[in-house]
Write a structure and sequence with these properties.
With 119 residues, this protein is mostly helical. The chain has six helices and no strands. The structure holds zinc ion.
């Protein structure tokens, strides 16, 4: 099965962002989302305003909605695969299995398309 991953951004991959690797990243992100002044966040978590600003611009640019959609797509694929496995394991006649597979496939394609934004 294909695996989908939430894109975490360039700097995180190369290990350069102090905020992304901060133990309290979640709290910091929450503060930034709540529009707490950078100076205040910087002081509270002991990092530079520049690092926070860079992090906010580069790593928080993916909207929460996009992340939700990514997770939904991932879950959708897992649920569909589980449903298919259930049908295969059942004692249903072949034509029923085929029909259910068709339904699942139609649904998956339509839902994936609906959940895919042109980013
Ligand atoms: Zn970051």
């Amino acid at each position: 099965m294909r695996k989908f991953r939430i894109d975490t951004g360039e700097s995180l991959k190369s290990g350069q962002c102090a905020v992304c690797f901060h133990k309290q990243r979640r709290e910091i992100n929450e503060a930034l989302r709540a529009k707490v002044f950078l100076r205040v966040v910087a002081e509270q978590y002991g990092m530079s305003e520049a690092a926070l600003s860079r992090h906010r611009k580069n790593h928080m640019s993916m909207s929460t909605n996009q992340q939700i959609l990514e997770r939904l797509r991932e879950k959708l694929l897992v649920v569909c695969a589980a449903a298919e496995a259930r049908v295969i394991d059942s004692d249903e006649p072949d034509d029923t299995v085929d029909k259910v597979f068709e339904l699942i496939d139609d649904f998956r394609q339509e839902a994936i398309q609906a959940l895919t934004l042109p980013w």
